[in-house]
Amino acid sequence: MKKSLLVLAALGAFAGAASAQSSVTLFGIVDVNARYTKNGDLKVKSLSTDGLNSSRLGFRGVEDLGGGLKAGFWLETSFGADSGSGGTTSGNSTNSTNRFWHRRSTVSLLGNFGEIRAGRELTATYTGFADYDVMGTNGVGDVGHFNNPTTVGATLVDTATRADNMVSYYTPALGGLYARASVAAGEGTTGKKHIAGRIGYAAGPLDVSGSYGTTEANATEDKYKKGNIGASYDFGVVKVLGFVSQAKFLDAKQNVIDVGVSVPVGPSTFRVGYVRVDAKGTIGATNIDANDANQFAIGYQYDLSKRTALYSTYAQIKNKGAAAFTVATPPAAVAGQKSQGFEAGIRHSF
Questions:
Q1: Which residue would you say has higher pLDDT here, 14 or 226?
Q2: Can you give the CATH number for the domain in which 223 is found?
Q3: pLDDT band of 19, cuts 50, 70, 90
Q4: Phi, psi (degrees; rounded to nearest 5) at 156
Q5: Is residue 19 part of a domain?
Q6: 3-state secondary structure the chain
Q7: pTM of whole model > 0.85?
Q8: Count of domains for the chain
């Protein structure tokens, strides 16, 4: 009897130790706003979502395997908080059709060597500019409005934001240096075979990085190419950030310059951003040199707590030539016309 009790006690202690070595976290964001959008002469008033952050729901966990080795997973989906719809493509949740965990679904091994991560997640060429956008790549002031391969004729590319079937290696902390290399399998589908990398330095108030990637964009395996150089510096009273980016496919290219400042004042944060878009070359027989645009955005955030914030943003895009960028849709885009929008909302994270 005593032996049985000892065995049960030992098993209970072992189970307790095993469970203490792993953890699972439920997390999410709910973001809803009232929005007014005007594209050309078309106007829409709406209750929308994802003005400050993309609404999402996710699970992540880590298991300690011992010897400095850990296993991890991350499952994350998005939803339209304004309507309760699942699998929304608003915000920066692109190429999400027929995927449930379309924001991220990865499994990882972590150790002193860094991290090996497999599955679906953001690409290095996306984070290489998004990390330096003062508006946070969300809402009417999102610089992601200009991250569309179709503007240079690469209509089949499916890796502008995230990539499926990707394996990435992340270096450990190396005195401020960091790097990532990624390969995504095309699996016989045009627009999905992707190779990219990013290298940077982050220490104290400074963060600077460069990233570059290619995607096979058509049946003849011509490459869609994207490169970025970005930097930010936090002076305390003001943070300055920005990037330069180029997307290229065949004879067309698009250059983007983004600069912004963020000023914290107590629980408030003021943001101002400017984006310049310059198109060059041809798509087939069509010259796109005139298809330029400028975006100006100003935003305000008031933190009610660490998890809850009120916000408002105004943004305006001036399109030239046949450019048809919008701060939001609906209404439909109008080529060569101004697009502007205002939103005010609340964001809660958990």
A1: 226
A2: 2.40.160.10
A3: very low
A4: -100, -5
A5: no
A6: CHHHHHHHHHHHHHHHHHHHCEEEEEEEEEEEEEEEEEECCEEEEEEEECCCCCCEEEEEEEEEEECCEEEEEEEEEEEECCCCEECCCCCCCCCCCCCCCCCEEEEEEEECCEEEEEEEEECHHHHHHHCCCCCCCCHHHCHHHHCCHHHHCCCCCCCCCEEEEEEEEECCCECCEEEEEEEECCCCCCCCCEEEEEEEEEECCEEEEEEEEEEECCCCCCEEEEEEEEEEEECCCCEEEEEEEEEEECCEEEEEEEEEEEEEECCEEEEEEEEEEEEEEEECCEECCCCCEEEEEEEEEEECCCCEEEEEEEEEEEECCCCCCCCCCCCCCCCCCEEEEEEEEEEEEC
A7: yes
A8: 1
Q: Is residue 5 part of a domain?
A: no
Q: How many CA atoms lie within 13 A of 292 on its CB side?
A: 11
Lowest mean pLDDT among 6-10, 35-39, 101-105, 301-305: 6-10
Q: What is the pLDDT of residue 87?
A: 66
Identify the pLDDT of residue 86: 84
> Cα angle at 27 between 166 and 269, to 5 degrees?
100
Assess if residue 140 is contained within a domain. Answer: yes
Each residue's pLDDT tens digit, 157-186: 999 999 999 999 999 989 999 999 999 999
Distance, CA of 263 to chain centre: 22
Q: Which domain holds residue 201?
A: 26-349
- Evaluate whether 109 touches 116 at the Cβ level (below 8 Å): yes
Per the domain annotation, does 119 fall within a domain? Answer: yes
pLDDT at 96: 55
